[in-house]
Amino acid sequence: MPDTKQCPDCERINEVLSRVGDRWSVLVVISLSQYGTMRFNEIKRNLSISQRMLSLTLKELERDGLVKRTQYPTIPPKVEYELTAMGESFRKPVNALGQWALQHRAKIDAAREAYDDAAAKLPKSRIVS
Predict the structure, then answer these.
(1) Which of 59, 125, 10, 105 is nearest to 51 (CA)?
(2) How far is CA 116 from CA 4, 123, 127, in A?
(3) Topology of domain 4-126, CATH
(4) CA 94 to CA 124: how far, in whole Å?
C-alpha cells in the first residue's frame, strides 16, 4: 500500500481537480472563454447539455470562484454567466487540454479499438472488471 505521506498535497489536488476537471466544467469554461458572457440557454444549446447538469455545473463553478453569475431585475429575469479572473486564469490549461484531446482523438480511437479487439479475444475468465 502506498504511503500517503509522500504526497501531502495529493488529497487537496484531487479534490480541486475532480471538481474543475470534470467533463462539463471543462466544456463550460471552454465555451465561456470562446464566447464571453453567455446566458444559461446559450450555454445549454452550445454544449447540448441537460438543464439539470448545466445548473449543477454552473453552481459548482460559481462556488469554486471560476464563474460569475449576474442576475438582472427584469421580467422575465435575465441571468448571465462569465468567467471570473480566476476562471480566466484557468482558460489556458483548459484550452490546452481541449486542443490535446482534438489532436490525439484519432490515436485514442485507434488505441481503444485495438484494446477492445484484444479484450474480445480473451477468455471471459481473463477479463477483469
Answers:
(1) 59
(2) 34, 13, 11
(3) Arc Repressor Mutant, subunit A (1.10.10)
(4) 39
> How far is the C-alpha of 62 from the C-alpha of 81, rounded, in Å?
9
> Region 21-44: what's the mean pLDDT?
93
SS3 content of the chain, % helix, strand, coil (to 5): 70, 10, 20
pLDDT exceeds cutoff 90 at 10: no
pTM: 0.77
DSSP state letter for 9: T
Among 16, 39, 12, residue whose Cα is nearest residue 90? 16
Length of the chain: 129
Domain boundaries defined on the chain: 4-126
